[in-house]
Amino acid sequence: MRKLICAIAVAAAALAAGSAALAAGGTLHMFMSEKAVSNVSDPELKRLLERNRDIVLWASWYPDSGYAGGNKYGEYSHWSEFHNGYIDYIRNDIGPSHPEYERLIAHLLGAMAHGFEDQVFDHLFIEKVTEADGGTQDDVDRGLDMVCMGEHGRNELSAAARLKGNPARLTPVSHLEKVYEKLGAPWPDIRRQMISGLRFLYLAFEGTKILHKNESEIVRQKIPWGAANYMQAPGGVEHLGRLTALYWEARWKKLNDIPVDLVFATYPENGGALISRRAGTVDSSINIFFSEKYDQSSITPETVFVTGPNGARIDGAFHWSYGHNMLQFRPAADLPADSRFDVTVKDSIRDMFGAPMGKDYTFHVLAP
Ligand SMILES: [Zn+2]
Questions:
Q1: pTM above 0.90, yes or no
Q2: What is the CATH number of domain 261-366?
Q3: How far is the CA of 3 from the centre of ligand 1 (A)?
């Protein structure tokens, strides 16, 4: 959901011209994060997220404000260096006694959810839409917001209603300005960029409200598989509602100095089945999710590998999926039917700070 610049430009133009084309990505992000809030099991974290639901939801679109209207901070704001700088700021410069502490955590977790959701959505769901429908990322991002808004009543978000008159209301702009400054980010006009970008997002949301009724049918014809499966498919709204909750719980532990495993989830889950055993399809991929950015150089065929029947190694390739929290393994040849595959992630793999995982992580998946 990263190519928002053109989508937003089209949205603004569409609103101005009253034409039928338009934009977004944010409706799906906010829906995934809302699902994630209800899926969180840690009671303290859940209460924090519920008390600040509108901040979390609106923050779930925040990184894309950095692509809008010629802004420059979009890509940077999707990824781990920004997340960790933001965490450091909250811990070291703000602290739990600050009146805005909780709201900042809510915004941080919303923004982190966005980057994580992009990794999984783009590399599980959009790849499948491309295989099934030939659709592109733009078709999916702008198109499915239209479909989703109509089908699930997402035009009635209280977060969006609160932005009327001030699209920066739910975003801690002054704190973010300091986070970027501490990270040495090269945008002296970052405050102006943020305020303008947030206005673009708000306009795109309002534009989707106007246009989704007419646009949805066009989208359903263009990407029928995508439009029929964006809720339930791997990498879709329900799946990311579950994974994002687990990701938040891992990050929450880290914020509270509680040890957390580097691998926090997989797809398929342990003991789960691949949808397909056919090589070259996303449905035969094995996916591993990391609570912290991994050190790519520590991931090799010796440290992450898959064995099949009789312990034979399965040849395949890694897809880095933007190289932060998701690693995808794709088999080089069709997998044997009715088989079990054991996946090993060795203790020696490291996170971006050089910390080794410490113990092996193993799970298995089944071929249909
Ligand atoms: Zn994005």
A1: yes
A2: 2.60.40.1220
A3: 7
The amino acid occupying position 141 is: D
| Centroid of ligand 1 to alpha carbon of 237 (angstroms) | 15
- All CATH 2.60.40.1220 domain ranges in the chain, comma separated: 261-366
Q: What's the chain's Rg over C-alpha atoms?
A: 20
Residue 7 confidence (pLDDT): 52
CA distance 93 to 87: 10
Q: How far apart are the CA of 280 and the centre of ligand 1, in A?
A: 26
* Paired tokens of 93: 């410069």
Distance 283 CA to ligand 1 centre (A): 23
Hey, is 306 helix, strand or coil?
A: strand
Pick from 49-53, 143-147, 231-235, 345-349: least confident: 143-147
From ligand 1's centre to the CA of 64, what distance in Å? 5
In 3D space, the residue among 106, 130, 145, 320 whose CA is nearest the CA of residue 237 turns out to be: 145
pLDDT for 139: 82
